[in-house]
Amino acid sequence: KTWRIYLPMATCLSLLSTIVPTAPLLVAAFGVSPQQGHQHQIDRRRAISTISSLPLITTLTPTPAFSSEGEETTAATVERIAFEKRNRNSNKNAVIREDFWYMFNRVPPRKLDPANLPRDDPKFNTWGTCAAGSDSSSNSCTYVPLKLRIAGYSKYSFLISLGARDYETLGKLLNNEKQQPSIAWEESASYVDEGGPGRVPSPIFDSTRKMVLLATALLTSPNYSGPPRDLFVARYYVNEVAFAASEMRDAIDSRDINRARDAWEYGKDSWNSYYAVVNRAIVPKVGDKFEPVV
Hints:
- By secondary structure, this protein is mainly α.
- It has 10 helices and 4 strands; from the N terminus they run αααβααβββααααα.
- Strands 1-2 form a two-stranded parallel sheet. A two-stranded antiparallel sheet has the order 3-4.
- Helix 1 runs antiparallel to helix 2, helix 2 runs antiparallel to helix 3 and helix 8 packs antiparallel against helix 9.
- The N terminus is likely disordered.
């Protein structure tokens, strides 16, 4: 039998104020105090305006995934955490919406250790039992045929490597102390041009689209129902690379060298983490593994 207890609104708000520090602002927004009871009606516009300006409750923050023990939050990591825990706006501005964060509300680490990335390990599919693979880290239900991997690699690997090379060049421009205080702003801006009517995107932005397509070709098995975990993680890091490029573009436009450098470092870690995911599917018959961005 279900029991329901109804409390006056003022009582509920009074209890809330003892739990959430921002509750007094909520009380003020709704125009109700514990002494006033139900005498005042809710001022909806004022309530929405006040609530939208409140800080996010920490319990709504996505939890880390594949976190490494021993990582500490220090003053030096404040900027890094700000990038990772930004408001993603439901991935509306992402290269591809359905990434690991969007699907699982969890944030992979900034620098991915492939050994900590769990693989999908189904036991059965439509055809029967999933036999273990020869490398003991996959099985027949998640195996991606070489033919599919070779086709994807031959189409996209060169363009991705071209974008990575430009990314390294941009990093050198931003970090070349000999150019201070006259950074080559115009040249730097050309590397993070997102394109538009009559303009093609720079290799850095173009490579993010190719990274999504390559990950799909390398990681999606015709024997597996639905996208695998590896693919969602790879997509997450592609979105982070694109975000870092956008941050650098805005920082360069505003001549904020420190912000541009921080964004470049974040994008470098995201690019290398993407490589850590897809390199596991690149065997000698497919091609050469990607070299890290430095």
